[in-house]
Amino acid sequence: MAQDATGAAATNFTRGIGLHTKPVPLEPYRSASFFAAERDRVFARAWLMLARVEELPAPGDYVVKSIPTNGVSVILSHAKDGRIRGFYNSCSHRGSEVVAGPRGNAARFTCPYHSWTYANDGRLVGIPDEPSFFAVDKANCGLTPIATETWEGWIFVNLQRRPEVSLAMFLGPFAVHLAGLKYQAASTPVVLTADLDANWKVVMDAFVETYHIPVIHPKTIGTTFSSKMNPFARLLDARKLGIHQAVSMYGNPEYVANPDNRVEALAYSAAATGSVIAAATTEGARAFLEHPSVNPTGSGTWSMDVNHLFPHTHIDCGPGGFWTHQFWPTSPNTCRYEVRFYVPQAQNVYERFQQELYVGRVAEIVLEDLNNVARTQRGIDTGGKDFMQIQDSEIGIRHTMEQLMKWVDADTVAEAMA
Q: Which of 4, 132, 181, 353 sits a CA distance of 20 to 30 A from 288?
């Protein structure tokens, strides 16, 4: 087995979970035809995670969400019967958007164009000057429903009028992997959004591999995700979960705060998280950390897990809780990126101080990644290279591309998931 200069053995996750080791094609990162196929055969057929139940906890609550890849505006509505339903945000009269959003509480939605009115369960309940119309069948003119299901507090939609597979079938072993995870602070996210000049996979790839960390993040997390014994930040674990996947990343157990950085030293002097990208103590996150799929190998050199929910969502777990990344294709070389960091309500000034440092630090880390993606896309767009030569700690890139190719080529979802 190959070793690095420290004598540490190289990992072999790629072959271990049955993936090929050939170069990965670059054309899907710049091709207009592949982008169209992703839009029509992946995002229009897969279950897409859009929200959490904490965003609309009470009857009458609603949120408006965008699926920019497919140009769809979605109303998620918590009706009085307790169900959360999804609807196309489009009026049955002239097609106008009914709800401007982004959230609120209402028993009824009234279109701002001609005041057609809908109950929050989607029924059409009011038409101004109805006698002038020609026998409108109100029962068939409600808001058009979108298939909507909920799992572990996450709300998913499917743009197929009759989804080929249920959400449970789509999640498969991923649902078992994260079943029962205690999502603490799920009602208090800090949300960052950016429209980027890069293919969505370029951006997503940056958040699932560790090979780049010592180079791109030398002053932020370069010395927390690598060490003298693991200078290339090799992964601790990689798992294939059907069409989904999970990887666990290394954490330097010998890291200490830079004594010249008085702010960091103060913020983490009383924390026992073992990570500088956390906003809670291990005691506060105990129930979360006890889940068997958080640090699944039980390593003492663990920093975080990336749980990739195909096609475009990461649910990340760290010593202080969880956060999510979402990557939405908008063109062959542009995308929309959303990250949500969930932090508990601060109980005192010290906790608030620690959280402010956490948010500022993770924002800096994210910006270090995002500053690199346009440069990567420009290099890909030159056409000078046809393939990527990727290594074992980039297994997440390889697995996702394999799944995307299957979905693009498959005539049915069952075939894509086989």
A: 353
Give strand pairing partners of 237.
248
Task: Assess contact for 187 and 71: CB atoms under 8 A.
Answer: no
Tell me whether the omega of the peptide bond preceding residue 28 falls within 30 degrees of 0, making it cis: no
Q: In sequence order, which residues have a C-beta less than 8 Å from that of residue 158 and are 6 or more positions away?
A: 45, 46, 47, 48, 146, 147, 149, 167
pLDDT score, position 7: 45
Domain that holds residue 87: 48-162
Q: DSSP E strands: which ranges in 208-320?
A: 237-241, 244-250, 302-309, 313-318
Query: In 3D, which of 176, 402, 181 has the Cα closest to residue 310?
Result: 402
Which of the residue ranges 11-20, 82-91, 270-279 would you say has the lowest mean pLDDT?
270-279
User: Where do runs of H (alpha helix) occur along 269-343?
Assistant: 286-289
The mean of the pLDDT values for the chain is 92
- Count the domains in the chain: 2
Q: Give the end of a domain, one of 130, 162, 194.
A: 162
Strand-pairing partners, residue 86, are 76, 146
Say if 189 falls within a structural domain: yes
For 121, the token pair is 């369960």
Q: Please give the pLDDT value at position 356.
A: 82
**157 in the same domain as 290:** no
Residue 338 has pLDDT above 90, yes or no: yes
What six digits make up the tokens of 62? Answer: 């609603």
pLDDT band at 270 (very low <50, low <70, confident <90, very high): very low
How high is the pLDDT of residue 358?
79
Does residue 316 register a pLDDT over 90?
Answer: yes
Phi and psi at residue 398, to the nearest 5°: -65, -45
